[in-house]
Structures are given as C-alpha cells and as structure tokens.
Design brief:
Length: 372
C-alpha cells in the first residue's frame, strides 16, 4: 500500500471546481457539468474557499497561510493541513509534482491533455497521469477485422494514444460499408487495412500501424500472428466463418495467455465480452453452458457452421460507434493496468432503450481448455 504523503504544494484537480453555497458551505464538483456535488464542506468562517482558490500548485502550506492572513483570515496550520489531507485522500487535491509531464514531449502534453486530466481524476493507484499515458503509448493491440467495429475501435484507440495497432483483414472497402465503417468514398475498392492505416496515421502520427492483408483460417493462423506481434490484447472483429472464427481466436488467446475482446452488433443491440486467460471462461466453456441450457445447441451450431449461416448485417453508424467506444474504453483500462470491466462478462446495450446489462460468463468445470 502506498504511504500517504501530504501535498507540499497542493493543487486542486483540473476537473474539480469549488462553489460557495448557502451561508457557510462549499460544494465540490468533480468532472461533470451537471449533477450533484461530490462533497459538501462546512466553511463557517470563509477561509476554506479562500484556501481552495489559492491551491494552484505554486504555493506551499506556509505560503497559503500567509495569503489567508493577508486577507484577514487567521488560520492555524494544523487546520489547513487537515483540509488538504481530506481533499487529497478523495483525489480532489494532489501535489504539484503529480502533474509533472516532462516524460512526454510538449506536443504530446497538449495532444493528450484531456487524457491526462482524466487519468488524474480516475487514478487511485498513486501513479501519475504521465505514467498512465506512457503505458498507453507503449500498448499494442492486434485488431482482427477492419469493418464497422474494428475501424471504430481502432480510431478511438489511436486518438487515445495507443502506441501500436496491428491491422489484419483480407477485404476491400465497398460502398455499403460507408454507413458504419470509418472510410470515405475515395477509399472504395482499396484494401481495408490500407484505408484504415491512412486514417489512423492522419488521426495520430504517434501511433505505429502494422498491416497484414490476410484471411484468418484457423487457430494456428491466429496464434502465429499473436506470437509474431506480441500484442497486449486481441480484438476479434471478424464475423466469418460464423462461430468458427470466435473459436479459433479464443483458443489462440488461451494458448498464448493473451486476452481477447469479442463483439457483435445489430440494428437493435450491441454486445461485447472479453476472454481473459485465468480470469474468465473461454469459447469452449460458453459452448458447454449453451448445450446445458439448450440440448439442441450443438446441432444448431453444426448446421450454421456447415452452411455458414449468419443474418444479414443490420447496423447503423451509432451501433458500431457505441460498442466500439465501449470496447476501446475497456481496452485502455487493460493497457494502463486497470482491471477490465468486461473480463468474464457479457456487456450488452440496447439501441432502442439505451439500457445496458452485464451478465457473468463463468468457466465451465469440465472445459478441456481452461478448467483448472
């Protein structure tokens, strides 16, 4: 556990504002423009709001006491220290050194300034915002499939500063792709991996983009890509061959101990789930549970695989953008060292009601691949 050290030059978080309310209170708002205050502080003598307005990282505790004294506010040092400690333990105030971004280039500090504010607001590990961004810049995502979900997820990751993205697809861009895939009319007829590489490079030249023009055909195929590129995580964004593709990718992820994010969208619903070796079920577990719940499952699956039966694509632009955004949010968590929300979970979102659900996907005790 990190030892608590009181901020010597306290600075209010960039995402925090303090507002005097009523006669003797201060409302602390964190990170949103709407909603209730995160904290209400009693301030009967008016010195706390003055102290908060002085906490800009440029003055020590002693300096702040002097500023307050110059305003005619007599405050004892233990009382000011107690206020700083209360705010710091709730991540509302940090020491100025916490906001040291010298490990980033000046243009990166500007480009990722909103990321840095977000990391500062969300962190509870003692790591600095710059350290989180550096982790993200060192991250590597292997993206299998550059369609709607693939292109939206990759774009969000590139904007966030994911250091390396490897794109794998065998397809070319068609006019029918443009309602949900992040390409342009000028891209029609070109390879998806090439079109997406161009887009991602234009979005963020910090990101290294590898391309592989290839069709996924079996588990060894996926495993070879994982072993070649050594990604931190795999995104499974291919839909054919039906069922088999997810099995191949899941098996490859579990035999190489690399997590994989899976997904699906339609006009009415989107979903994603993460297969995380050692922390979640694998594809084979899910199949066994499905057979338990539906005795005809294997029979239905075999028929669909044999005839490659998959419903016609029905998806709007928002379908891919919402699920792609949610997936990228969880992938960023993985890359910076936070636990993934979707590990061992199925997360669904209804596009007709905007309701979300989270469903556990436990390991099967008889799974030949991942059962302990």
């Amino acid at each position: 556990m990190t030892r608590f050290v009181l901020a010597s030059q306290p600075r209010l978080q960039p995402t925090v504002i303090a507002v005097p309310v009523g006669n003797n209170d201060i409302a602390i708002h964190r990170g949103t423009r709407q909603g209730e205050a995160s904290l209400i502080i009693s301030d009967p003598y008016g010195w706390k709001i003055a102290a908060l307005n002085t906490m800009k990282g440029q003055q020590s505790i002693s300096d702040i006491l002097q500023v307050l004294a110059d305003k005619g506010l007599r405050v004892e040092e233990p009382d000011l220290r107690k206020l700083v400690e209360e705010l710091q333990t709730q991540n509302l105030v940090q020491d100025e050194s916490y906001f040291d971004y010298q490990s980033l280039r000046p243009d990166q500090t500007e480009r990722y300034s909103r990321n840095l504010n977000g990391f500062a607001a969300l962190s509870d590990t003692g790591m600095t915002p710059a350290e989180y961004q550096q982790r993200l810049l060192k991250g590597h995502v292997l993206l299998l499939g550059c369609g709607g979900l693939g292109s939206c997820t990759a774009t969000a990751l590139a904007m966030a500063g994911c250091g390396t993205i490897t794109l794998v697809d065998f397809d070319e861009i068609e006019l029918s792709n443009l309602n949900r895939q992040l390409y342009t009319v000028n891209d029609v007829g070109t390879r998806k991996v090439d079109g997406l590489k161009t887009r991602l490079t234009e979005v963020n030249s910090d990101v290294t983009i590898n391309t592989v023009f290839k069709r996924i055909t079996d588990t060894p195929n996926v495993r070879k890509l994982i072993e070649q590129f050594q990604p931190d995580i795999v995104v499974a964004a291919i839909d054919r061959p039906v069922i088999a593709a997810d099995r191949w990718i899941s098996d490859a992820c579990f035999t190489t101990s690399v997590p994989g994010v899976f997904n699906s969208v339609s006009a009415g619903m989107g979903m994603f789930w993460t297969k995380y070796p050692g922390k979640s079920s694998c594809f084979r577990c899910d199949e066994k549970w499905s057979q338990t719940n539906n005795p005809h499952h294997y029979e239905m699956r075999a028929w669909r695989e044999k005839h490659d039966l998959i419903p016609a694509t029905s998806a709007f632009s928002h379908s891919a953008m919402i699920v792609g955004g949610m997936m990228s949010a969880d992938i960023v968590r993985k890359l910076v060292g936070w636990p993934m929300i979707s590990a061992g979970k199925l997360i669904t979102v209804s596009f007709t009601t905007l309701e979300t659900t989270v469903i556990d996907k436990p390991q099967h005790p008889e799974c030949e691949l991942c059962a302990s």
